[in-house]
Amino acid sequence: MNDKKHLSVSAIQNGTVIDHIPAQNLFKVISILGLDKIPNLITFGTNLESGHLGKKAIVKIADKYFERDEINRIAIVAPHAKLNIIKDYVVVEKMLVEVPDDIVGIVKCVNPKCITNFENVTPKFHVADKKNVSLKCHYCEKITDQEHMEYR
Amino acid sequence: MKNRSLVSINDLSREEIFRILDMAEEFEKNPSQRILEGKIVATLFFEPSTRTRLSFESAVNRLGGRVIGFSEASSSSVAKGESLKDTILTVANYSDLIVMRHPVEGSARYASEVSPVPIINAGDGANQHPTQTMLDLYSIRKTQGTLNNLKIVMVGDLKYGRTVHSLLMAMSQFNASFVFIAPKELQMPQEYKLFLKEMGLKYEEHTDLAENIKDADIVYMTRVQKERFSDPMDYEKVKNAYILRSCMLEGTKANMRVLHPLPRVNEINVDVDDNAKAYYFTQALNGVYARMAIMASILGLK
């Protein structure tokens, strides 16, 4: 599908390609990275066939490069995402997403009685399980697991 | 732990726990030391808890300090819609230390992050109540002579009971074994059982009280509350099954003591009060010494 002759999403000259995003989380990735708020040329494809993800999505952002910390923010929704850094149509660097130790913002605490759901307090979590991504609230100490994750 | 807040029992290392317990022991021998003279402690109780508040205030007063504060949110500016942050920042101007009780979970951690003075968490919803855990540890060490290798039987509401959860976490550092006695609806949550398994600590679960306390070192009683049952019939069925009576204490170990965070309703029959194994009122007294030690330690006075 994705060979050079039949690209589902056309190539970019310079920028970043984020591949292997679970299709259902594409728009979460877009929102977490703030791609809906930048002026760059962005193309994406979704529901593409993928061996281990079932349906995957891919995003290509022209003239945009991400910092390590920035890109790790998508780890909770796309832990297997791969990044290709493109310069002059050539992949010059590949990056994998790493699940960080702490997550700030992004996710809501599952506990309705948590202070972060009462007052203007930014949710903060310590990652309790990196493999299945479960988060322990820094404030109320309750666990929010993948199944109950809601994004802000 | 000078100038540090105390929010969760998990913030304290074993060494810090021992240091506070040793200090509490000194305060028990000599409770009237005016080391808090000139200090102001604010007790902010956003929900009422008379027992905890009086215990803190007694500790401050015995050490010669002064107390300001409120005992329920309706008599503070919270009722006017003030945020927790604003309340804390304001009260921090008036005091050297803030003791707070709040119904919202995580409120104490948040307060400790915005406050320029140390915060002591006196209970944040169902989350943490570290000074209760410290007084429980003090009571256990005092009656057993050690914290190591004890058999702790926990009885009653083990599902929602914040006290038993924190005590379990704390005692897990001392190779304790546990027996959980609760009605089906109120059993110890899975996450704590998993934690014990990971720590390699033994636990048993039972629904019968009388038969499972014979080899206990500590029997920790809690209240089974009617509100916890979705079906009132379920409550009626079990409400009498978790009442400790003096006759049940026959044949238990000589060193065994009965603890309860109080207030008690009927889960410990009054005939236990006269039994030498009843310890819950002394446990409440120990709370004053434990809180003296925690405050003195945070203010760097000892």
What does this structure look like?
The complex is a heterodimer of chains A (152) and B (302). With 152 residues, chain A is mainly β. Chain A has 2 domains: 4-96, Alpha-Beta Plaits, CATH 3.30.70.140; 102-151, Aspartate carbamoyltransferase regulatory subunit, C-terminal domain (SH3 type barrels, Roll). Helix content of chain A is 8%, strand content 39%. In chain A, a hairpin with a 4-residue loop joins strand 8 and strand 9 (134-137). Chain A is elongated, with a radius of gyration of 17 Å. By secondary structure, chain B is an alpha/beta fold. Chain B folds into 2 domains: 32-128, Rossmann fold (3-Layer(aba) Sandwich); 131-284, Rossmann fold, CATH 3.40.50. In chain B, the strands form 2 sheets. Chain B has a 5-stranded parallel beta sheet with strand order 7-6-5-8-9, covered by helices on one side. In chain B, strands 2-1-3-4 form a 4-stranded parallel beta sheet, sandwiched between helices. In chain B, helix 7 (190-199) links the parallel strand 6 and strand 7. The mean pLDDT of chain B is 94. Chain A binds chain B through residues 109, 111, 113-116, 118-121, 137-143, and chain B through 8, 10, 83-85, 103-107, 109-110, 124-128, 191.
